[in-house]
Each structure stands twice: as C-alpha cells, then as structure tokens.
Design a protein that fits this description.
Layout (H helix, E strand, L loop, with lengths): L23 E2 L20 E5 L7 E5 L11 E3 L6 H28 L1
Antiparallel strand pairs: 1-2, 2-3, 3-4
Keywords: Metal-binding, Zinc, Zinc-finger
Protein name: GRF-type domain-containing protein
GO molecular function, one term: zinc ion binding
Length: about 110
C-alpha cells in the first residue's frame, strides 16, 4: 500500500493507537473528528503506522485492505514531522534493532 506521496506503508502488530491493538478503528482515536470513517469501498477505515524513512512512526487511516485489496482512501492522522525527526527516529530504530540482535545472540550463546 502506498501513501499519497508514494511512500510504502505497512501494517504490523504495533499499528494501533490504543494499547497495541492491531488495526484500531479511526473512531477509537479521541481527536478523530476531522478524519473520514468509511473508505471509498464502503468499509470502516483503520489506523496504521508508517515506518518509512520519510514518515517514521506517523499514523494514517485508510482502507482495511480486506482480502488483500486496498482502495485509494488515505488520510494522515498525525501532522508532518520536521526534517530532524525524520533523521533521528530511523537512526534510533536502527540502533534499537542492533541491540535486540546482540541480546538475542547473547541469549542463544548462553543456552
């Protein structure tokens, strides 16, 4: 699925905006008064998180993509991030990933 500016976005288990519930509905968002709730294919939209380098951690709502089909419904939930945030967040996520790999390797060695 791509966003309005061509970034690839994906859904994972941490995509919700409340309590790590995958695929939170847009009406679960307390400030969602200006968000659309029904996509162009007639389904209730879901809120997901973009993990692209251009929009790391930025939430958006769109088609739930049932059966692998996504209509063109898309709207950002969060405002655009500044350039510095777009540089820092991916670097921090990369560092976290490296630490997780090191911990897993150490645990595997211990066992």
């Amino acid at each position: 699925m791509t966003s309005e500016n061509g970034d690839w976005v994906h859904s994972s288990g941490s995509d919700s905006i409340h309590g790590n519930r995958p695929g939170a509905r847009a009406n679960d968002y307390s400030s969602a008064d200006n968000l659309f709730r029904i996509c162009t294919c007639g389904k209730e939209v879901v809120v997901r998180t973009s993990w692209t380098s251009k929009n790391p951690g930025r939430r958006f709502c769109g088609c739930p993509g049932d059966e692998g089909f996504y209509c063109s419904s898309f709207q950002w939930v969060d405002p655009a991030m500044c350039r510095r945030s777009k540089e820092v967040i991916p670097a921090l996520l990369n560092r976290l990933s490296q630490y997780e790999i090191a911990v897993k390797s150490a645990n595997d060695w211990i066992e």
